[in-house]
């Protein structure tokens, strides 16, 4: 079972789920979830990864047990993750990001390469402009702050022109895991991301957008081979 802990960052508290390594020897893995998902989304994969390394899954701001400050943005999310890594003093980590978490992971790897050994990006592509619009808010209580969607979604629909520079300055070896034809993410954009990065490998697991949840065994085997290779 994971240990639950929090990291204080200025006016925020960020919640983590921590799995201690069954056997040490590998750098810690830090896992960033997608929009609307919490750290528990990684439970099945994290338990497998923890056989050989410490694993830390993060509730991004506005999600789960982390603070819901009402102010959101991709840069703020990345700054929070950097704050966690600096606070925990883990050395260089293997950083995972799924969907929104993948974009955040790219910003972290670009701005603080000293913190990242390897990068795993799950079903994200180079952001391209798309028709603006918000999804309909689900009914009932949510495990995340809907204001986060309202503020971050426009940044994805109308991407910052600086994204190419972000990708061009990522030096960490990177595994890009694509979800294949059933994913709503344009797979040509995922391939474009892999080709843009300095040292990247593209692997497709035909599972749709939620690769680690839909095909956990294949995902775990693929990422473990990459991390330990």
Automatic annotation (TrEMBL):
InterPro entries the UniProt entry points to: AB_hydrolase_1 (IPR000073), AB_hydrolase_fold (IPR029058), Carboxylesterase_BioH (IPR050228)
GO molecular function, one term: catalytic activity
Annotated ranges, domain AB hydrolase-1: 30-128
Gene3D superfamilies linked: alpha/beta hydrolase
Highest taxon of source: Bacteria
SUPFAM superfamilies registered for this protein in UniProt: alpha/beta-Hydrolases (SSF53474)
PANTHER family per record: HYDROLASE ALPHA/BETA FOLD FAMILY, PEROXISOMAL MEMBRANE PROTEIN LPX1
The protein's name: Pimeloyl-ACP methyl ester carboxylesterase
């Amino acid at each position: 079972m994971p240990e639950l802990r929090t990291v204080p960052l200025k006016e925020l508290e960020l919640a983590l789920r921590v799995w201690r390594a069954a056997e040490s020897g590998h750098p810690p893995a830090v896992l960033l979830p997608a929009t609307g998902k919490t750290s528990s989304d990684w439970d099945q994969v994290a338990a497998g990864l923890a056989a050989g390394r410490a694993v830390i899954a993060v509730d991004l701001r506005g999600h789960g047990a982390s603070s819901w400050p009402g102010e959101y943005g991709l840069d703020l999310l990345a700054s929070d993750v950097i704050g966690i890594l600096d606070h925990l003093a883990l050395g260089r980590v293997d950083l995972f990001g799924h969907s929104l978490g993948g974009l955040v992971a790219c910003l972290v790897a670009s701005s603080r390469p000293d913190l990242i050994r390897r990068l795993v990006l799950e079903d994200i592509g180079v952001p391209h402009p798309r028709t603006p619009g918000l999804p309909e808010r689900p009914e009932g209580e949510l495990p995340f702050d809907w204001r986060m969607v309202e503020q971050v979604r426009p940044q994805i629909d109308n991407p910052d022109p600086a994204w190419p520079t972000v990708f061009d300055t990522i030096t960490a070896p990177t595994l890009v895991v694509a979800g294949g034809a059933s994913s709503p993410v344009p797979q040509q954009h995922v391939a474009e991301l892999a080709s843009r990065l300095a040292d990247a490998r593209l692997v497709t697991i035909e599972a749709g957008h939620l690769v680690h949840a839909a095909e956990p065994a294949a995902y775990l085997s693929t990422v473990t081979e990459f991390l330990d290779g």
